[in-house]
Amino acid sequence: MLQSLKLSGPTDRARRASRFTRLPLLARLCAAFALVYLFGAAVGVTGIVNLIDLRQRSDALYRQDMHGAISAERAQSALARLGRAQLSVTMATSGTERDEAAADIDAALGRLDAALDGIRHAAPAQAERLQPERAQAGKLLQAYVALVRQQPLDPLQFDSAVSVDGHFVAEQLTKLSGMMEDTRARQERQAAGTMASVGSRQATAQALMIGLLAASLVAAAGLAWFAARSLTTELGGEPADAAEAATRIAAGDLTGDIRLRNGDAHSVLGLLSRMRDQLAGVLARIRDSAQDITAASAGIAAGNHDLAARTNQQAAALAGAAESVRRLAGLVEQSHAQATESSGVAQRAREAADSGSAVVREMSGAMEAVHVHSRQIAEVVTLIESIAFQTNILALNAAVEAARAGPAGRGFAVVAQEVRALAQRSASSAREIGDIVGSATREIERGAHLTTEVVSAMGRIDSAVSHSHELASQLCGLADEQALGVRTVGHSVGQLEQTAQQNAELVDTVAAQAERLDALAAGLEQDVARFRF
């Protein structure tokens, strides 16, 4: 068991030391200083706590122990004054002296009460014991003063009660004085105990502060030694050795050896040695790569010049193609304009044909209406002829009747003759009108037939114009598609031309970058040449 404890102790310490050395340098230094500051803070806090405790004990010594003893002394003085005042009352030879002695007794009692208040603050239990005795002494003194005031001024003539009461008063004052003395002694002993406690506390605090100071000094020295040792271990040597190695590497000298301890591969000097070796290898590879880059950049520059020439030729060819496409686009635009104009003419012709068809249709309607009206007129003429014929018959009948009547019907016969003549003329006129209406009806029928043929012809014209308009619209659409195709081709050729120009610019940029790469490779070779390895 003991052996395992002995083995585990150093192992734990080694583990803690290894954990501490893995911390950053700033953290270790801060931990060391923090521990020293912690010890200093502990010393300061201990001193402050003890000072506060000493202050509290000193305050208690003054407020309780010393103040109680002083109050007891003041009470003793007040009791002595009461004794003298009692004697003054007894020995007074006048009423004035008795009054003054009584006033002294009252004043002494007031001082005694003030002293008892001080004792009450310092030692409440003792004050509770003294308070009844003080009250008894006050009653006895008041009774004694009242009894003396009733006696004559000659003490030899006093009653025996005066001496008895005076004896009681003296005994009470003596008892109270003894109790006050006991209180004073008690308070003094308590003050002595408090002083001894303060001294012991002060000695303990001093010993603790001295121990903490010694521990802080030992810890600071140990931490300083441990920090210096860990720093030296991490550096792998003295800081001057690390500075010298870093200076040689910064100057480009990679040939010097760095002195290392046996098995030292993780210190700063060991890492510097590894860095120097790896840097030498990297610089050698960089030098070889720079030479390869120089050769490659020369080949890139030569190939880039050939590519630039071919790109310029391609750009010139695309420029010619773009010009041809632009001319073709102009011709297509003209064709499109003519097709649009033809479509407009066809549209206007269609509108005129539609308008003529409408007029012809209206004329056909009017001819149909005239034909209807002519038929109605023929019917009316026929009716007139019928009426004229009946009128002629009636007139003939009237003439026959008038002839039968003889001379009396002669005038009526004349009238009948005139009516018959009018009927005949009406019939003749009706026949003429009928002939005219018949001729007009035939002409109207012929005009209606011609109108029907005109309507049919206008329909054919409208169909032809509509077909022409459709053909013109299709031609305009084809012209639009052709113009769009030509514009698309022109845009594509323009993009190809722009791409060729951009390629030419990129070729120039690549040439410039190749030249810059060549210059950088040359500069890199010069930089590598500064190092010796």
TrEMBL record:
It comes from Cupriavidus yeoncheonensis. SMART domains: MA. This is Methyl-accepting transducer domain-containing protein. GO terms for molecular function: transmembrane signaling receptor activity. Coiled coil: none annotated. One of its GO terms (biological process) is chemotaxis. Keywords: Chemotaxis, Membrane, Transducer, Transmembrane, Transmembrane helix. Belongs to the methyl-accepting chemotaxis (MCP) protein family. InterPro entries: MCP_chemotaxis (IPR051310), MCPsignal_dom (IPR004089). The chain crosses the membrane at residues 25-52, 207-228. Residues 289-518 form the Methyl-accepting transducer domain. GO terms for cellular component: plasma membrane. SUPFAM superfamilies: Methyl-accepting chemotaxis protein (MCP) signaling domain.
